[in-house]
Amino acid sequence: MFADIIQFDFLRHTFLTGLLIGIIAPLLGTFLVVRRLSLLADALSHVTLAGIAFGLFIEKQLILPLSPLYSGMGFSVVGAILIEKLRSVYTAYQEIGIPIILSGGVGLSVIFISLANGFNTDLFNYLFGSVSAVSRNDFLSILGISIFIIVIIIIFYKELLTLSFDEEHATVSGIHSNRIHFLFIVLTALVIAVSIRIVGVLLVSALMTLPVASAMRIAVSFKQLIFFSILFAEIAVIVGLISGYYLSIPPGGTIVMVAIIILMISLGLKSLSFQFKKGVEE
Predict the structure, then answer these.
(1) Does the structural domain 2-276 have CATH classification 1.10.3470.10?
(2) What is the pLDDT of residue 262?
């Protein structure tokens, strides 16, 4: 595969895009998991699917040059904004906005998929990922968005960290929690939108949570959690892309299964470590 990566531009773009996603997906995922907002990724992924189906509908029915990647990104950001608005409406039940938007995303997906003449190869690639779907323009867009996300996380790291562990303390400390939370969910929407080419819209939330779940078993600090999450995600992406390439199957499934195997190994190692310490103490 590596010889083909050098020879073929689309494989090189796919591989580099996978490496970028392996960084930004678990990077945002650590904050999602710590804040107990894992379902946010599922909600926004379904809204992104509606945007992709809408883009395919516009592209094929109205013959307009609207890329499904950008329409999916637009829908995802709008979905994130709506979730934030619902948080301000249902102040006592702020999490209810997530299933509301998720349901709306599923409903719109069904409508636009039907209008776009149902399932086809393009939609299948968006659902489960593809090793040949990343164009040069897509890669450059994903690269720019990835750099933007990483820079924002570095700038607002302290605020995001404080908000993740103690929202009340963050507010008392003078942090504009609503603004930071709004920025956070918009970043999450962007991560989901740019990850669909590789992992697929239905599996992208797994890449944001499974490596974090594995890292939580061995990390002893939040920075270690981020480091191990990114490491496990990169392993899953690289092995998944190579497996998908040689088996001629969508890489999303293989990436997720590798991430699950890493999770099982981390759980097993943690259990063995506990049993060993218990035996030493006895």
Answers:
(1) yes
(2) 92
